[in-house]
Amino acid sequence: MAKQENKAFDSYQSCIDWLFARHRFVMKPGLERVERLLGSVGDPHRRFRVVHVGGTNGKGSTSCMIASALTEHGIETGLYTSPHVIDFTERITVNGVAIERERVVELMEELKPGADEIEATFFEITTAAAALYFAEEEVDLVVAEVGLGGRLDATNVLDSVLSVITRIAIDHTEVLGSDPAVIAAEKAGIIREDGTVVCGAEGVALEVIRGVAAARKAHFVPVSRESVLDSVSVTPAGSLFNFNHGPASYDELSISMLGRHQVENAASALVSLVELDRIGLIELTEAAVRRGLAEACCIGRMQIIDRRPTLVADVAHNPDGARALMDAVLEVFDYERAIVVLGIMGDKDARGYIAEFAGRADLMVFTRPASERAADPEDLAAIATDLGIQSRVIPSAGAAIEGALSEAREGDLVLVTGSHYTVGDVMKSLGVGQALEA
Questions:
Q1: Would the pLDDT of 175 be above 80?
Q2: What is the DSSP letter of 212?
Q3: Which of 66-80, 163-177, 184-198, 389-403 shows the lowest per-residue confidence on average (mean pLDDT)?
Q4: Mean pLDDT of 331-345
Q5: Do 205 and 184 touch, CB atoms closer than 8 A?
Q6: Which of the 8 DSSP states describes residue 177?
Q7: Would you tell me the crossing angle of helices 203-215 and 180-187 to the nearest 10 degrees?
Q8: DSSP 8-state symbol, 183
Q9: Could you give the C-alpha distances from 127 to 34, 92, 115, 130, in angstroms and in order?
């Protein structure tokens, strides 16, 4: 990598501060800027193959499972996900190992001139940095998670060999709208001409995606209709299930990620692996599949942080995600009372989200995650009161988790959720993971 004599950043923190300041540049339709930025550093995204994963919920977990299984097959595998929970380096990994902070700074030094010239956004720069890193590390396959939408997302400059679309729900309405068919069409924008698409969506979303696939002459594989999941057993230690899809038939597969919804994500990952085998990019082996699924994990996905009381963190951030989360909590855990620490973004369907906890949460503690976009916890508490849910407001995330834990008894469950920001703030306050250096 070319070195610059005059460094723009004197530390990792100054680099991250510059990068996050790019949020002030609003997203503009089209991929021209990120293409120009990649062009300024030699088009690194042309030097590896891509599995592109979109959807509303489950795409991060599905991406992690696919990448883990590919690594277990001996394939040099990059994984690009967003957002992070604790530290930026979570977003970019190779064979399960996160990028080093020093490399982040070097990549941003190289990208900064071009980024400043075109006023590139945070996500455009981050996507370009990931591509540059993967090219330099000479990876074979990259699993790339869509940031927002699909058609106009910066990751859509990547020329994918396989498109994967997980569950579709209403989210980011200010950008994508509230019509499921319209949202599905945006997500389907990642489908390539004559490509292959694995679809975990259902209902009208599935039919819209099927139509786009047909128009682009892409091979369409609906997960729930062409594969079989049975003998599902979910526990606090993980899940077991049987899976059958075409030539792949496995009994008692195991995943460590908790909840029935993660078994459904595993099905999408498994079908994706079968399709990669079909098109000749991998040679699927049962042993590698088993290891990959068993070892896959994502920070903040029904993550058990402590016991007695049971402390769980999950980044569910829309009503559909909250519903799946609470269904899983009720099925997986035994507890006396549920105390929920919740902070969400102001652009979310707050009432729809909080309603998923009515009759399921004994107490909700509303807080404000460290984001300018965060919803006012007082407004959230008013919604909870209207829904008949007992609540209190503790604005600081650190103080909120302390308050919840002091309220909890040994047999209770404390659940932290609402956004990646909330989970990250709480984890850092508890000393879980590596917080940013000063």
A1: no
A2: H
A3: 163-177
A4: 96
A5: yes
A6: -
A7: 40
A8: H
A9: 8, 9, 12, 5
Query: pLDDT at residue 78 above 80?
Result: yes
Q: Which sequence spans correspond to the domains of the chain?
A: 12-295, 303-429
Q: For tokens 């309405």, name the residue.
A: 173
238-245 and 248-255 strand pairing: antiparallel
Q: Per residue in 299-316, pLDDT tens? A: 999 999 999 999 999 999
Q: How far apart are CA 25 and CA 379, in angstroms?
A: 28
Confidence grade of residue 384 (pLDDT, cut at 50, 70, 90): very high
CATH homologous superfamily, domain 303-429: Mur ligase, C-terminal domain (3.90.190.20)
d(CA 438, CA 423): 20
Q: 42's torsion region: left (phi>0), alpha (psi -120 to 50) or beta?
A: left
List of E strands, 72-137: 77-80, 92-94, 97-98
Tell me: domain 12-295, CATH 3.40.1190.10, correct?
yes
Give the phi and the psi of residue 19 in degrees, each rounded to 5: -65, -45
Name all contacts of 228-233 with Cβ < 8 Å and 24+ positions apart.
Answer: 229/263, 229/264, 229/267, 232/260, 232/263
Using one digit for the tens of pLDDT, what is the confidence trace for 201-259? 999 999 999 999 999 999 999 999 999 999 999 999 999 999 999 889 999 999 999 99
Burial of 262 (0-12, 13-18, 19+ CB in 10 A): buried
Taken in order 167, 171, 172, 178, the sign of the CA dihedral is positive
Say if residues 264 and 303 touch (Cβ distance below 8 Å). no
Q: How far is CA 388 from the centre of its chain?
A: 31
Amino acid at 196: T
Largest CA distance in the chain: 62
The answer to whether 54 and 164 are in contact (CB under 8 A) is yes
For residue 98, what are the contacts with CB-CB under 8 A and spacing of at least 6? 87, 89, 90, 92
> What is the share, in percent, of the chain residues with pLDDT greater than 90?
87
- The terminus-to-terminus CA distance of the chain in angstroms comes to 27
In which band, very low, low, confident or very high, does the pLDDT at 348 lie, cut at 50, 70 and 90?
Answer: confident
Name residue, tokens 């049975």: 230
The crossing angle, in degrees rounded to 10, of helices 260-278 and 286-295 is: 140
Query: In the sheet that 49-54 helps form, which strands lie side by side, from edge to edge?
Result: 97-98, 92-94, 77-80, 141-145, 49-54, 160-165, 196-199, 219-222
